[in-house]
Specification:
The complex is a heterodimer of chains A (118) and B (322).
Chain A lengths: L9 H9 L8 E3 L8 E7 L2 E3 L2 E4 L4 E6 L8 E2 L14 E5 L4 E6 L7 E6 L1
Parallel strand pairs in A: 1-4, 2-5, 4-9
Antiparallel strand pairs in A: 2-3, 5-7, 6-8, 8-9
Chain B lengths: L19 H11 L3 E6 L2 E6 L8 H5 L2 E6 L14 H13 L7 E4 L9 H11 L6 E4 L12 H7 L9 E5 L2 E5 L16 H11 L8 E4 L18 H6 L7 E5 L6 E5 L2 E5 L31 E7 L7 E6 L2
Parallel strand pairs in B: 3-4, 4-5, 7-8, 8-9, 9-11
Antiparallel strand pairs in B: 1-2, 3-12, 6-7, 10-11, 12-13
Chain lengths: 118, 322
Amino acid sequence: MRRSVSIAGLAAALLLGTLGFGTGQKSYVASAQEKTSTMEVKIDNFSFGPVELTVPVGTTVTWTNRDDIPHTVVSTDKVFKSKVLDTDEKFSYTFSKAATYPYFCSIHPKMTGKVIVQ
Amino acid sequence: MSEKKKDELLHDHNNDGVNRRGFLKCMAWAGTGALCVMQGGVLKSYSLSRLSELNTAEAKGELSFVQISDSHMGFNKPANPDVAGTLKAAVDKINGLTAAPEFMLHTGDISHLSKPEEFDTVDQILKSAKPKDVFYVPGEHDVLNDDGKQFLERYGKGSKGAGWYSFDKKGVHFMGLVNVMNLKAGGLGTLGHEQLEWMEDDVKHLKHSTPIVVFAHIPLWSVYPEWGWGTDDSAQALAYLKKFGSVTVLNGHIHQTMQKVEGNVTFHTAASTAFPQPQPGKADSPGPMKVPAEQLRSVLGITDVNYVQGQHALAVVDSSLA
């Protein structure tokens, strides 16, 4: 469904961003050049930030709850599921397979996000 | 009661002496402490300071009970560092009511993180309340990590499914519903097919004149879906209750009092005993709202409900803890 974006093509990603790729939602594309193996998602004000994250295979994503209310990070397709995260607690998951992983907070299901692994 | 003339009802669709305006007028008293009782077709309101002048029957009607909600035991953030203290204040308020309520409803989020010690603390504090029976439904904070197993073990004796049940008191039919389980990404609260089927069956044989009280954690009306303040399949549940002349729906979850009257259905949300939340859309998120310490108890509260036989609507009264 989703077009595959060359991980080397940061410029292409930026271009897509300019064209409104990601339907205007905040997104972040990690390029292979960064050699980052860890990415962060912050939970603030009942939302995941960035709401959409694109990472290379092998990346570990860490979510941190910065709200005064507990949240969870649960894959819609049941790939990963955190315990409840109280304030400042973290959950990490390492993505070893390329796919799109939609997720949500099972306590506040209006909170949704997505990790795209390429 | 020199104000009485001004409070006379202009429209009385239910023929029960209560119209929306009259009710809201009465509700407006609540913040300063008032008790409303239905009697002889007329809704009467009394300032709490005058309660001692009333005899018990007058203050109570046929059935009186109290709703408390959202204790969030274990919460310790700036919005309220002492949720045990404010729950105790709620119990004091209940024990101070002239007509002792017969029982209590707790509409969920008993605990903040589903920890055993949080439930234990609430149980301990509620032991000092005069009403000994407490009927619970879970909030989403009560079923974390274990799909509600602990909640069911503690509070779900004799319940069905995820903890729903019904009971009768003095001719009023009560239904405790669970709408915090199996929530779907992007969705609201949900009752689910199994519970809806049970509901339909549960009310099938009741007379249309039976007053119905439904209580659940997340509002069963669309308060503010953007913040998840609603229940996806509540319309189906309410459809089963259409035939009844008097339906009162009591919810928590949104940590503020709100009311809506739709035909014969009165929807009401109770204040939290722990911390307030912002009005719909009035903040970046529905997170805990910090108010000056001296104002905190004025935005927390309990809800007192009175039923007088032969009248359509139950009188629902909010009192702050201030």
